[in-house]
Amino acid sequence: MPVGDILARVRATGKVSAEDTLDARRAVYGDDGSIDPAEIDGLFAIDEAADNSDPQWRALLVEAGTDFIVRQQEPFGYIDEANADWLIARVGKDGLIKTASELELLVKILEVAMKSPEQLVAFTLHQVESAVVDGVGPLADGGRLEPGRIGRAEADLIRRILYAFAGDAGISITRVEAEILFNINDRTVEADNDPAWSDLFAKALANCVMAASGYVAPPREVALRQEAWLNSPSGGVGTFLTRMVSGGFAGILEAYTTPTGEKATAIRNQEKSQEIAAAEIVNQEEAKWLAERIGRDGELHENEKALLRFLRDESPSIHPALKPLIEKAS
User: Distances from the Cα of 215 to the Cαs of 3, 121, 212, in angstroms?
Assistant: First the structure.
């Protein structure tokens, strides 16, 4: 059955049934398993036309979308800027996606692709920002998500997106990502956010700061890992921040190294593309941006202060542009 016929049926019923899902799978994968643009566009249209769907429908959309964009479009295995722009234009309207299935597809593509452009991770993070801050988009779950507060599920989703964008390169947190994280933090700082957010935000910021100070950053899975003690009860924000500084950041800094001697030579000789190498270095201009961005709303927030104090006490090398902030946090 052609995808167009399935779409007409879904529009008439308002739902994607198990039968629709099976028919759609047969239609798009067909005899040779190759998916053409009209078929993938039809799957998006079906997803957007349904008020509810069979549990297997999302799995099909994510599988087929990932196959089409990552595995069947050149450069194979990578997302270039043209393909990212096409995907964003297809699923986004006024900067927002239409369905939760499309959000899952975006994250999956970031996870599967060996490298993706920054506009794709920025667009994906923006979906979480819009839901958390403004209560709009499919992630807002019809108003059931509390706007202005970051829960555990939202923090975990942001962490997953940041992990995914690192790809095979394991690059440090970029300015584009950090800017969105700062925006989310600035607009939710007065809320009773889940401790997982403070942990993630501080570690992402630490990743920027340490890279700006000349350290070699570990893979994101290490730099942003969630601590086990986050799942245990806490005595409030103050107690949590104390535990974060005493237990969490100590582990963070141990993973950052300053290359010297033979290690430095090995790193210099390591075969990397200029693009990836540039992405791993936060130069002086980046450090100045970071110093200006922290506290842009007129105050240093507690999770920012906790990080800066820890760097003051434990890090032997901090970029000069960041020192005024550390003094302010003292």
Answer: 52, 24, 7
